[in-house]
Amino acid sequence: MGAVGSPLVFAVGILGNILSFLVILAPVPTFYRVYKRKSTESFQSVPYAMALLSAMLWLYYALLTKDLLLLTINTVGCVVESAYLAIYLAYAPKQARTFTAKLVCIMNVALYGAMVCVLQLLVKDGESRVTIAGGIGSAFALAVFVAPLAIIRQVIRTKSVEFLPFWLSFFLTISAVVWFFYGLLMKDFFVATPNVLGLLFGLAQMSLHLVYKNPKKKGAVSEVQYSIGLLVWARLI
């Protein structure tokens, strides 16, 4: 792997941190609305639990590789996504709160904890540990592309980009480009490879804004916010 100490690598990594931070903050209006209304309405927690898991996976990988720039943005990601989930749990109805608590305990605590324990206790070779952790992070990053695919299908079906905020699509696309080059410069293909698909899906989202410039109908607030949650979940790094 390359060296973060290189001025070019450091500059690209800092830019990636800034762009990813802007994407992470995209759901803030959603949770401000939840706080003001003291209700989660029909908002769903799954995208935020998945986004937290993604940040946790990359945080562990960053700790293993001692990659400071990956470490900083994913630490922020863990804190912010945890805050989103805490707000959701505070104002969600009982059934949704129970479901979310179980989801977080199973996925973000039990499964993630088991993965870390297995790698730390059973995989003695440090390089093998990095390879496995990077492979898991990359596989998860590729799997979350189900999210933007669902939104793209919805946009085409409704002929409306209401579910696809332009600025969020733009930042996700640029972020994928930046992290791809960061991965190349660092010779870290676990970081670079998923961002190739990130760029392709980003360009697909941007092209939909050209095709469907004028929304044909207004989507429900909950549907729009759910789409934003899915897009943020699909943030790779």
Automatic annotation (TrEMBL):
Instruction: Indicate where this protein is primarily found.
Output: membrane
- Tell me where in or outside the cell this protein is found: Cell membrane
UniProt keyword list? Cell membrane, Membrane, Repeat, Sugar transport, Transmembrane, Transmembrane helix, Transport
> What sections of the protein cross the membrane?
6-25, 46-63, 69-91, 103-123, 129-152, 164-185, 191-212
Q: Is the ATP-binding keyword given for this protein?
A: no
Topology of the protein relative to the lipid bilayer: Multi-pass membrane protein
Show the GO MF annotations. Answer: sugar transmembrane transporter activity
Gene Ontology, cellular component aspect: plasma membrane
Q: How does it assemble?
A: Forms homooligomers and/or heterooligomers.
What name has this protein been given in UniProt?
A: Bidirectional sugar transporter SWEET
Q: Which organism is it from?
A: Aegilops tauschii (Tausch's goatgrass)
